[in-house]
Design a protein that fits this description.
This is Methyltransferase. By secondary structure, this protein is of the alpha/beta class. The chain contains 5 helices and 7 strands; from the N terminus they run αβαβαβαβαβββ.
Length: 183
């Protein structure tokens, strides 16, 4: 796994073979971040990485200058790996949390400029996640959600949907929280 760009560009981390996680491929990650550059400037923002897996996206967000990143992963070994990678980078910008994503979403009182969610493709609750994120108001006005999923799901008619991108078997649906008008 490698960091594509930013202050840690080119850094590699070897993922243990025993991991069950399916990290977003470097090809897909590079392409979706190229698309995202027209939506958001990562410098100085708050970001949330749900179902962090190997931490590939969290590390990319740290490298791209996010002010604060919260990384939520349930698996003990994956969480430990993310923590070790952050120690190697000698950064405290990312807070790796070990816990259930659904519990986190339901109890979170913070809002983020950017959220990346990459649940296991076979997760039965997968289709509910974008709606839950908006229902719990986790995005700031103008905030972006990138939702990674398999090809069997179509979110093009979902509220807040902006566009869909596909890179091989990896699909991304992009959502934006519209700015609310102030009275």
């Amino acid at each position: 796994m490698r960091i594509i760009t930013g202050i840690y560009k080119g850094r590699h981390f070897d993922i243990p073979r025993s991991f069950k996680a399916r990290p977003t491929t470097d090809f897909a990650k590079e392409n979706i971040f190229n698309v995202l550059n027209s939506y958001i400037d990562f410098e100085g923002i708050n970001a949330l990485d749900l179902f962090s897996g190997t931490g590939s996206i969290s590390l990319e967000l740290v490298s791209r200058g996010c002010e604060h990143v919260v990384s939520v992963e349930m698996d003990r070994d994956h969480h430990k790996f993310i923590t070790e990678c952050l120690k190697k980078l000698d950064t405290d910008v990312c807070l790796p949390l070990r816990g259930d994503v659904f519990r986190y979403i339901k109890s979170c009182k913070q809002q983020f400029d950017f959220i990346f969610a990459d649940p296991p493709y076979a997760l039965k609750e997968l289709p509910t996640i974008p709606g839950l994120i908006f229902e719990k108001n986790l995005l700031k006005d103008g905030g972006i959600l990138v939702f990674e999923h398999g090809k069997e799901h179509d979110f093009s008619n979902a509220p807040h949907f902006v566009e869909h991108r596909s890179y091989g078997s990896v699909n991304f649906s992009i959502f934006r929280k519209e700015a609310t008008a102030s009275l």
